[in-house]
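Annex B. Sample input.
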Amino acid sequence: TYHPTVAEALAGTGALVNGFENMTDPQTVFIRVENTATGCVNTNNIASLELSVEPIPTATAPATYELCATDASDPNTAVFDLTSLDAEIIAGQLNMAVSYYETAMDADSDINAIANATTYVNTSNPQTLYARVRQTITGCLSDPVLVTLQVNALPVFTLPADDILCVDADTGTTTDGPMIGVDLGAGYSYSWTTPNGTANSPTVAVTTAGTYTLTITDNNFTTSCIYSDSVTYQASSAPSVLDIQITTPAFASSHNVIATASGGSGVYEYQLDDGDWQETGEFLDLAPGEHTITVRDTNGCGELIRGFELIDYMKFFTPNGDEYHPTWNIIGLRNQPGAKIYIFDRYGKLLKQISPAGPGWDGTYNGSPMPSQDYWFRVEYVDPFDGTPKEFINHFTLKR
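Annex B, continued. Sample output.
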């Protein structure tokens, strides 16, 4: 039995009944243990028990718990650490713990408390939960308070897809690049990182190849949600140099060239005259005379054209007034006006000296037509194959 004093415990009087209400806080009561069969009591072992009354805990409703959406594709969902609200709800009370519930019924009955309070994913937006404070010594519970969860959407936007930027082959820049970015209106701030530095404007001009990253902050909410997107531009340009190397000597039986583009940043393909485009700059078995090679950027960023001549001679000509091969000359020497061409009859008599830049020989000597037969020539020129002065002698046929 329990007694308010030692004396009463020894005497077995004044036993406390169930429903005893303490008189002081704390209050000590004394315990009498009696053998009910013999009535014996150990008066040397009267135990004591201190009774203490703990206050009923209270719960303070926290401010709305706001987070930014976890994913741009789901603007209404976030992962909440509900335990971050514990201090605000407990408000300085000692020996307290907080439990969270999804429904008022669960909170009132103290059942189905949320187990994953540190990684709780909301099920609606906004969402109301319920919290109760528990005294860890007594287990006493506070009345429930409301907990409001609010998910703020990210300021989602999309920059253009990665692309090619046509730039100047020498400077690596362009003055014709696109403007990129987005203006979401008031309450947003902008931060760019670009190959040219940083900027704080909604849009920027693309002038240099590289990665452009825009981060937008939504300042309309205390959460200041941010979202970033990037676009990468790859530089491409026409070459600044087109080198054409003639790989066969003048007057060869066949003529070959190799064209090499350089000085740009693109992927190139080559075209001889009006022929098909090809990936390499090697062209074989070309006819003598004037040609052009065009190299272009496969991304559409420009082209470069260069002409060249392949040197050979006409095997025959027909000066008979029908405008078909009316004169004879060396083919492909127009760019060497200083070259000298001498024409002889079969006996070695000089009939004519002509210029490769002129109209050629019309088949006459002192105004008189020469007969149909073979004639000889000697040409003094610079061979583009190796850049050395050379002389070439051979013969051709005059046909009437």
